[in-house]
Amino acid sequence: MIRHYALIVVLLLTGCAGLGQVERISDLSGEQLKQMRDIQLYDSDKGLNFRSHGRIKGLSCKGSGWSGYSREDSAMTQLKIKAVKVRANGILYPTCSHDASVDWGNNCWESWVCVGEAITVE
């Protein structure tokens, strides 16, 4: 009986990491891949004529104590994928942060999170 509970706890801790937050690059069309590479990052909105699509988040998550690593560039790629999915061509005020401890908010043992505002620059 104790083994069953232990197995359930292990599955919950490792199987749900970043659940529903990580986009697969392989799911993008060729056109979306091109759009992702063309996404521009902006540190200021001064002089920009843009329309906002709202805040977006990219996550790179180490799902268990034994799985690979989380990486900042992977979180930034996720942010760009999210921008493409909302039909944006830029990201305003992109920032990334690293959480080397257990990130309970994202269900990760370690994570990189990048956030920004998805925008269409005209």
Automatic annotation (TrEMBL):
GO terms for biological process: intracellular signal transduction. PROSITE patterns: PROKAR_LIPOPROTEIN. It comes from Nitrosovibrio tenuis. This is RcsF lipoprotein. The keyword 4Fe-4S does not apply. GO terms for cellular component: cell outer membrane. Coiled coil: none annotated. It comes from the Bacteria. Keywords: Lipoprotein. It holds the Pfam family RcsF. The keyword Lipoprotein applies.
